[in-house]
Amino acid sequence: METTKLKRASILLLFGCFSAGLTSAKHPVQAPAKKTCESGVVLKLSSGTASQGGLLLAEISGSKPSQEFSAEWDGRPIPLWRETPASPTLHAVLGVDLEKPPGRYEWKLSWAAADGKPIVCSLPITVRAGKFPTERLTVEKQFVQPDPEQQKRAEEDQKKMKAIYDTITPEVLWKGKFVLPLKGVTTGGNFGRRRVLNGEARSPHAGVDFPAAAGTPVYAAQSGKVVLAENLYYSGNTVVIDHGFGIYTLYAHLSEIGVHAGDPVELSAEIGKVGATGRVTGPHLHWGLTIDHARVNGLQIVQRQP
Ligand SMILES: [Zn+2]
Q1: How far, in Å, is the centroid of ligand 1 from the Cα of 232?
Q2: What is the pTM (predicted TM-score) of this model?
């Protein structure tokens, strides 16, 4: 067992990845949570517990198609959708940000009863601490202490990303289950890893790193619309895809970008090639998943359909 682990670790290091900390795309068996509220509306969550960087699939059933619901999670309104306009079931995905403090929270729903009376019903969610190791890295000085011009570029990038994540496209752009962005790969690492760069603590690593040779094709994890395809200061050549209802995937450090902002993409369409652009120690794919601003482990959505 141990030797296999070591072997996998050394293979990863060989390919320039930062760590041997692996997470697989398998999901732990979780007990779903359910609550029947007033007027027969039923709230369901794929689990009553989630770890930092995890996600929960949510469902509201027993509603009338004309009924309007508002959902709230993590202090934000969460978009809900119906599979068809006449469906009595609504859906949502709740992302648990990798830095959300562990504790007990609520997924809160509100709507109006037939007589107009406001109804509020909620389901508790326990957030557990994620097990994230700390990584110490030495990188080129310019990336740790950017000069004023680089600092300005990085801030502009950040503003651009915030504007993207602030936008919720009220449309299901995905088709079926999410897949991994590289072929022949089943695991990736580094999600949530706390970083100390040249002795200074930095924000945690918000994506999954896949070791791969430069030039390896990168595929869209799901269909959607390209909303960013350009070079950013830290993440190098970057592609961001909007999948609708606040769900976005990001592909960073590409050597080549094969799409343009505004392009529709199909599930598994090639969008670029693995590279080492931006702040990296070697070629790999950095893959990010953001759900309503929450930075989530992408491996949690693979093989799942929201
Ligand atoms: Zn990364």
Answers
A1: 14
A2: 0.87
